[in-house]
Amino acid sequence: MLTFLPSSAEQSAGKGQNLTLIIPVSAHARVTFGAQKLQQALTKAGYQVQIKPGNQVTQSNSQLIIGLSSDDVVKRTASLYNLPSVPGKEGFSIRKDPQKPILIVGADPSGVLYGCLELADQVTKTNKLPETINLTDKPEMVLRGTCIGVQKPTYLPGRDVYEYPYTPETFPWLYDKALWIRYLDMMVENRYNSLYLWNGHPFASLVRLKEYPYAVEVDDATFKKNEEMFRFLTEEADKRGIWVIQMFYNIIVSKPFAEHHHIKTQDRNRPIIPLIADYTRKSIAAFVQKYPNVGLLIALGEAMEGVGQDDVDWFTKTIIPGVKDGLKALGQTTEPPLVLRAHDTDAPRVMKAALPLYKNLYTEAKFNGEALTTYTPRGKWADLHRTLSNIGTVQIENVHILANLEPFRYGSADFIQKSVQAMHSVYGANGLHLYPQASYWDWPYTADKTSPRLLQLDRDWIWYKNWGRYAWNSQRNRPDEINYWGTQLANKYGLSTDKSKDILEAYEQAGEIEPKLLRRYGITDGNRQTLTLGMLMTQLINPFRYGLLTLLYESEAPEGEMIIDYAERDWKHDKHIGETPVRVADEVVEHGKKAVLAIEKAASSVTKEKEEFTRLKNDMYCQNALANFYAQKARAAIAVLRYKYSSDVRDLDKAVPLLESSVKHYAELVNLTKDTYLYANSMQTKQRKIPMRGVDGTYITWEEMLPVYQKELNRFKQAIDSLKSTSNAVAKQPIALKPATVTLQSPQVETYSLEKGQPVFADTTVAITEIAPELKQLKGLKFSKAKQQSERTSLTFTATQPVKLLIGFFNEKNPKYLPAPELETDASANDYGQSEIKISNAILVGGLPPVNVHAYSFKAGQHTLNLGKGACLLLGFMDGNQEIPIFDAGLAGNKKNIDWLFE
User: Is the N or the C terminus of the chain less surrounded, counting Cβ atoms within 10 Å?
Assistant: First the structure.
């Protein structure tokens, strides 16, 4: 029940009136904090307010009684109202009848806090206390959390991904108490109750182990600062009803620990060894003993081999025992919450093994991958979420990275509300874990080119307010929500609600653009793709070459067609299905047009925050240009793909003006961003692959990408001219890959020639039936297929020159086959430059799936390569300085390759 009856008086009834907020004598910190926030709002409204612990209650308008339903002071007042039972966890009731004290009663300390904040909001809105109020409320979601990455856009010198010790030099903001207070106040204002800190291996910055004193990564002074800051943060968070959750990856050890034991800090494919297990268990135990009220978020995947018994063993034999060891050392039995991240692990299997050992468990999985694409999730990804939700613990939805939204502002209340509703209705989830809207890797700053730099906390206020509002209650009435957000934007920019609703309209029109673009044209839902930098034509017409993540289309989009599907169906005159690339091209252009029109309607009325409004307006123009760039390029791609079937150059001619228009729109985007943004993507490492590989901070701006698209257009025109001038095109001769000699230390295996009829495994007779001629000079290494499937494949060798090792991956997702390198699940999947397919459908082996070839690059010296479990082909070593032409060999019955038109 939620009713509010304000006084009919025009002026504040509280000017100079004395009020007493009575709280229990031994009030919880959250109750005291809530009373203080209410006191501040009342004082600002003109009341004279004091907070008084005690039990003295009178039937007076001058008293506000605050506490739990079990508190004596509350019981006495509750009898005046015949108050029913207070709603569940974090719930509250506020009652006020004429000539009676106001009563704020909570189901728990957080409920009391939220009751105080709710009344404070009412007072701020009307500038007075209500004469009558009967309000009962509680949150829908059990956990409503935000996330801060204690990470950086680039690697630290000498370190790998996720390895960032807590130091003032690397993270000065981590030690800024005033900034933390602002952030925590934002969280409690939006009713968030959990804060996730993400870091690869935080323990070596926060605890010392007597068995491993050398493992600490920071000096003594920094260690003391870290202890003090962590205590400060957890205490201030607790006052606001916020549970701090420290995330860590597995298996990562500290750099000094790794150096002491001559091992790598992380190696996805190494087995669990007793030394690392003991170190990790003791680290967790020490952390729990030191910070018993802090939760842990465990990411089993990425830094250790996912989906296997190792995950189960690590969670049940290392992590949970570590937590229990810490509790035992404390003499405590109350289990701190553990959140199991479902990414790159078989979470249902792990939970089944863990629940008999530990009860306070949660699960967490990505809502739309590392993007925001749809509020209609479906398919096997939805099945996984429902399975997690049905385990009996709380499933938390992680709105992760947002690689398709950054860096532009996002504030579509409609899209976000529908997304939260889908979390409940489709996934059965009851928790939210929210990433920053943009620049996750660059916290606390945004990508805006300003001086001083903008804070995400300030710029993206509407992002946090949107998700917090609907995590509390997703079933709010849509017309009322339009009015609510209209009021919020009117207050922000100092204009009438009629005009502020135009700003909301702009947000909501633009809010459809990037989700639709990625889900219909994209390669991946991961952060290896920066959507707002655009895509190459080859990525649109041959997406499988770039490691297409089909989950994006099968689960994170409405039913529909990819560009390649659309072109084939169109050629065959088959009926189109669902959301098509052409429909999305038309729709995003319309969304962009409406967003610009709406923001311009509001522009002349803005009286506050004019500089920020100008930046917001520019973002609308940016997204409009982006929509037109993609729409025209998608139409061009469809025309090009038609040529694949027709061999009619006139189909290519039709694509030229469309591609020219696309480049023109991209040039417009360059002009809109070159003076307003520092970068498009905050992850500036080798993990970024699309549209271009990001190395050493390159290809992070639109200005860098424009020449790529101009060159692509020019190459296309030249290719068409060549086709028209040559009646009989000469077949391109294959370029043989040059073999290289290495010394193999282990294991000792036979070699075989890469030609038809040659068996590829030591323990089977299956042989090559077809092979790309480019490979024929190389010598494959003959491993046992059965051994590859039961043990990790490992290879130690010495090279006197740079070499590439070619590895063939069977193109089928099956536990029998070694998974191809995939940055969606494995952050180390490009450490050797191996994530991209070099030659697709390069080999056919009798009765097995087609083979795609990847290349692992090594400098001169001794190397050990550890691969995971599963059959694969080690196709031999080649000259490391020779470039491998990227193409589809077409041995699996593929149509002709047309990538050469653009390369």
Answer: N
